[in-house]
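Why should sequence recovery work at all? Because a backbone constrains its sequence more than one might expect. Tight turns favour small or flexible residues, buried strands favour hydrophobic ones, and helices have their own preferences. The token representation captures these environments compactly. In the example below, the structure is given first.
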């Protein structure tokens, strides 16, 4: 291939030098034919000259000739695409340009004698319609896309006017400049690296995105999409790079907004803690939207109460692009005491947003009325633009969020405000959920504190601790409960129970059941009788409420379980009974764990066999473990044998204190969010020493009453309780006299010194004394009345052999 042929094959655009010319007369007849035309259509000159040009075209294009002729007569020329017919019948797509040719006589070509010069160029390898320089210049100069050409030294050699929209100098002033000199606010090094890559490899770079600050908007980030193409000369040698610039700022900002909102949806509200949610809002918006953010909430909202506009605002969260949040005037958790009429308070009251593009640099920051708080102007803090957006949910304003610009010089605009409102509105839903959760939880905790013991009563019978873990994480409540009830004679009742279900309904039923147990315990009944009365009460209540007949029974106690244990520290005897509840475990002093062989009674309120109790003697230092079945469950399944085995292993592990041991057992067997409520009560037994108990047999003889008084008085002297001698003698006298007068069989007097002074008189009678209020003229009936006046409490309890009348005096309050 010769040099000229190589030159021809590399040129694909329409050029006069490449075209096949021919001449037409005014009637469209071929009057001149060239070798190029013959080479293109294979017609010899003798075959073409004298023929109408329409015979050389396809019928469709031949019909267009009148229209083309009219255009030529009007404009003097025409250019376009036509389809010619090759001599051998195939179609040849050609680019055609028709212009007026001068007459030989130089007349200039009137309409009647005009001749036409036709240039034909085959389009098989051509890119399209040939264009004049004027047309090409229109394409690039009128294009809204910025276009420029740099040479191999990356210096500007040509650019179109559209580049001026980016703040560049006019085209003439850009000539010879490098990119860094034209746009110093952009990363020229990265852009020129793309140009060098194109020059070296010839590979085009399309859609290169770049973010920076152009001269036309020095305080605002703009985004551009750039494409780079190498320009080669006729021999294929690089001449430079042709690149285009498209402003994509709005799309870029829209993508940023969507990304920020998507991030907000992912990170805000991951917990139901109000303060954490407020801080998440601040963290997400910095630095994507603002350089410094404060989130202030009404104090009542943080407490879970109903919001009121006149309440104090507390700083719930804040974040800054600067480490340590140096812009903060108040710390998180402190009062944000804004001045009256300040924008945050106006937005809080009106529920509308507010924006200020440029802050007064010498104005003081709004939250300055704080004792000992730092005061500073916006200039000192470096803040120059602000937005305040109220936090509103369900039509209620919960607080305000304030957005500041510091490092970024562009002020907040309407688009930023819309984005801030969208962001805060999403966060407001999470804050509202957290607030409502806090309110419900606080209400539930109040209910919990009213239903479960605030603290277990102090007594000397057992060392006791308890651990409770509800399945309902939201309210912190369930149907399990535990209790320790002091009884007469220094004894205690240990109770653990469980109501079906979870949440507030189960807690309400549990509260009623616990109250009933305490009421029955005050009657000093044996465990089996307590459960029997409790069973009747639950069954009767269930019948009255319609449980089992289709009525709502979420707060019914029917089917509840309960274990009731009475321990006597005088002799170490322990009596217990259970109703549809796991039996207690006993940890002996040597660490051995055993489960009590206790007959299982039916659940409360469902009917069945009568309840039975067992009595056993416990060595001092033994530990009773009363628990609900949630401690034996695993993954929502309850297996008695497997659960007892795991409980035994957990109980066998020693700990430095009973409280730590109790918590360790619950932690080992129940996860943080158990499938069922869990309650564990552990009681380590004690025995009263011989120096704390004294008893005597009293003959059934009224003359022996005085001797009983003296014996009791001497015992009090031995105990160092002389100040209680008078009242104790009176109590002993009345109780012994009453037993001698109304009872039969042996009488026994017992004094117990514990946290109180207890006087007990046993007799074999089965009738309980009654407190009377005698008239002035009555000669008797004042004994128990006097006892009730001097004793803190008194009562009667029945035992298999008879009854015991007892009275307690508080050792903490000596008689006057």
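From this structural description, the recovered sequence reads:
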């Amino acid at each position: 291939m010769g040099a000229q042929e190589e030159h021809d094959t590399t040129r694909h655009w329409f050029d006069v030098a490449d075209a096949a010319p021919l001449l037409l007369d005014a009637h469209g007849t071929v009057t001149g034919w060239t070798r190029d035309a013959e080479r293109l259509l294979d017609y010899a000159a003798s075959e073409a000259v004298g023929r109408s040009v329409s015979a050389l075209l396809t019928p469709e294009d031949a019909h267009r000739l009148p229209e083309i002729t009219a255009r030529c007569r009007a404009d003097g020329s025409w250019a376009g695409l036509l389809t010619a017919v090759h001599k051998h019948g195939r179609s040849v797509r050609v680019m055609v340009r028709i212009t007026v040719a001068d007459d030989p006589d130089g007349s200039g070509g009137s309409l009647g004698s005009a001749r036409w010069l036709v240039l034909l160029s085959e389009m098989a390898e051509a890119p399209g319609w040939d264009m004049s320089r004027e047309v090409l210049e229109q394409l690039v100069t009128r294009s809204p896309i910025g276009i420029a050409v740099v040479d191999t030294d990356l210096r500007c050699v040509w650019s179109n006017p559209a580049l001026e929209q980016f703040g560049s100098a006019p085209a003439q002033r850009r000539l010879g400049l490098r990119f860094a000199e034209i746009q110093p606010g952009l990363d020229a090094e990265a852009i020129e690296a793309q140009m060098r890559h194109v020059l070296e490899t010839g590979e085009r770079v399309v859609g290169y995105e770049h973010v920076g600050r152009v001269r036309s908007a020095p305080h605002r980030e703009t985004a551009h999409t750039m494409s780079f193409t190498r320009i080669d000369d006729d021999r294929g040698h690089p001449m430079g790079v042709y690149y285009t610039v498209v402003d994509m700022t709005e799309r870029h900002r829209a993508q940023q907004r969507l990304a920020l909102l998507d991030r907000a949806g992912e990170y805000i509200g991951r917990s139901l803690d109000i303060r954490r949610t407020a801080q998440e809002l601040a963290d997400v918006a910095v630095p994507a939207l603002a350089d410094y953010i404060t989130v202030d909430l009404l104090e009542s909202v943080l407490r879970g109460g109903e919001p009121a506009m006149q309440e104090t605002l507390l700083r719930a969260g804040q974040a800054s692009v600067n480490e340590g949040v140096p812009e903060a005037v108040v710390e998180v958790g402190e009062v944000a005491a804004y001045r009256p009429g300040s924008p945050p308070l106006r937005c809080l009251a009106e529920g509308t947003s507010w924006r200020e593009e440029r802050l007064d640099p010498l104005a003081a920051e709004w939250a300055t009325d704080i004792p000992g708080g730092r005061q500073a102007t916006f200039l000192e803090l470096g803040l120059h633009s602000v937005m305040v957006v109220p936090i509103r949910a369900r039509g209620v304003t919960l607080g305000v969020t304030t957005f500041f610009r510091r490092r970024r010089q562009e002020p907040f605009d309407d688009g930023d405000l819309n984005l801030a409102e969208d962001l805060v509105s999403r966060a407001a839903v999470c804050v509202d959920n957290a607030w409502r959760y806090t309110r419900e939880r606080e209400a539930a905790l109040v209910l919990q504190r009213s239903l479960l013991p605030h603290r277990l009563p102090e007594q000397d019978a057992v060392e006791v601790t308890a651990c409770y873990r509800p399945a309902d994480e939201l309210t912190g409540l369930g149907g399990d409960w535990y209790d320790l009830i002091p009884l007469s004679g220094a004894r205690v009742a240990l109770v653990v129970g469980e109501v079906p279900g979870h949440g507030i309904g189960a807690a309400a039923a549990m509260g009623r059941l616990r109250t009933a147990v305490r009421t029955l315990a005050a009657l000093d009944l044996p465990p089996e009788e307590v459960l029997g009365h409790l069973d009747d009460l639950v069954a009767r209540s269930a019948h009255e409420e319609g449980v089992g007949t289709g009525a709502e029974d979420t707060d019914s106690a029917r089917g509840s379980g309960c274990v009731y244990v009475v321990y006597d520290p005088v002799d170490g005897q322990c009596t217990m009974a259970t109703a549809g509840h796991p039996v207690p475990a006993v940890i002996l002093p040597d660490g051995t764990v055993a489960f009590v062989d206790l007959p299982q009674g039916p659940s409360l309120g469902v009917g069945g066999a009568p309840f039975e109790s067992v009595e056993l003697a416990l060595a001092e230092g033994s530990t009773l473990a009363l628990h609900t079945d949630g401690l034996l469950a695993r993954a929502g399944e309850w297996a008695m044998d497997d659960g007892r085995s795991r409980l035994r292993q957990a109980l066998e592990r020693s700990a430095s204190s009973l409280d730590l041991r109790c918590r360790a057992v619950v932690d080992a067997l129940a996860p943080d969010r158990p499938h069922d409520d869990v309650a564990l009560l552990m009681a380590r037994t004690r025995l009263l020493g011989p120096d704390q108990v004294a008893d005597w047999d009293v003959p059934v003889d009224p003359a022996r009453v005085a001797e009983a008084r003296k014996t009791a008085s001497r015992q009090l002297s031995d105990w160092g309780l002389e100040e209680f001698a008078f009242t104790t003698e009176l109590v002993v006298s009345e109780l012994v006299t009453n037993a001698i007068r109304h009872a039969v069989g042996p009488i026994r007097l017992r004094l117990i010194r514990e946290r109180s002074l207890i006087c007990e008189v046993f007799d074999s009678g089965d009738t309980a004394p009654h407190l009377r209020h005698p008239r002035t003229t009555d000669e008797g009936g004042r004994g128990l009345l006097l006892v009730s006046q001097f004793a803190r409490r008194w009562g009667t309890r029945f035992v298999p052999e008879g009854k015991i009348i007892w009275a307690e005096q508080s050792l903490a309050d000596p008689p006057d």
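A few observations help interpret the result. Confidence is low (pLDDT under 50) at residues 1-14, 104-112, 548-554, 775-781.
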